[in-house]
Amino acid sequence: MVRRYVLGVVVSAVLTFGTTVPVYAQQAEPVAHSITPLDIRVLRPASVVPTTDGRHLVFEAVISNFSTLPLTLSALRLGTVEQPEALGRFEDKALAELLQRPGGKAAEPSAEGGPSPATIGGNSFAVALFDVPVSDGIMVGDVRLGLSIAPFRPGLPDTTLNATVPVPLDRTPAVVLSSPLMGLGWVAFNALSNTSIHRTTLMVVDGQARVPERYAIDFMKLGEDGREFSGDQASNDSWAGYGQPILAVADGVIESIRDGLPDNVPGQPAAQKATLDTIAGNQVILHIGGVYVVYAHLIPGSIAVRPGQAVRRGQVLGRLGNSGQSDAPHLHLQVGDQGHVAAADGLPFVFDAFTLAGVVPDADALDKGQAWRPDQAPQPRHRQLPVENAVMGF
């Protein structure tokens, strides 16, 4: 008991004062180990994803404070051992925008005298969401994530408790999909960005925290007039995408379907209470090459396939609707490692070929009935993932 008590006192002192303890191993030079109360865990190995605006390095880091003291991050650094900030240094507002509290949005700027949005309370944690542009000239290899903490008692240096951890890298190529829809004017709402509701939603299912919608897209169609709807906004039939055919993105086998849930009234609360069974509404899950493609929010009764059925690329699976957790007709599309919309981890995917018509600058304006007009000539794209609000044609 005495020995355990003494060890506990030593550990407590180290966590309180942030001491760096040299550990002498069987080697020529001592190795300095940084003992800090912050635990850094990468949720899933990082991926380098080709997108419509360049390559992106995407991953999440859970930063947990194991002490009772609130600690404020002063900087996060992303790079390599040789170049610790080669991929970015995040401070002040940029740092605050990276940090999420599960179930919430990015931290807001602190009020006068209030805690910093980069403060992690005692016995608490935050999640840093990384979606970092990577120039074509940079080879992504041995990635390291480092952090520094602001002084938490008088007399400490400007930053202290520096720590660096390796970031595992998933080198598996992104899943290549053909078009899930037909025609022009498809907006990739809530696609990849650090502010997308898909990106910021962490779900704990079956005892595991995941980001199932990490790369998910909500496809909504614009009519020839550049508007989402024409006529009565509260009628599903007024929306340009409603009833559009939904296509198999590859040869595969139908894993499961869900049908019989009602369409919602646009702009109104969902007709069905959201549960793990109903959140995606009427859905089709397609198994292709070891991964699963989820098509959600279909029209009730429109699903044209059954579980276990083999389908071919381009085959019609159902019709775009407004069922489940949805407030307007759209197709929610995602790829995951499991055959469930929530009990899965989101995997990167790209489309083999499409046309990029531009980007919607103000999604709220579209929802209010305003029209979008392209400001560039259509560009053919291949094997890329659209970023948030990109306008596409298939």
From TrEMBL:
- Supply one GO molecular-function term: metalloendopeptidase activity
Q: Where is the M23ase beta-sheet core domain?
A: 240-339
InterPro entries with a match to the protein in the record: Cell_wall_metabolism_enzyme, Dup_hybrid_motif, M23ase_b-sheet_dom
Which Pfam families would you find in this protein's record? Answer: Peptidase_M23
Question: Mind telling me which CDD domains this protein's record contains?
Answer: M23_peptidase (cd12797)
Q: Which PANTHER family does the record match to this protein?
A: MUREIN HYDROLASE ACTIVATOR ENVC, PEPTIDASE-RELATED
Name by which UniProt lists this protein = M23ase beta-sheet core domain-containing protein
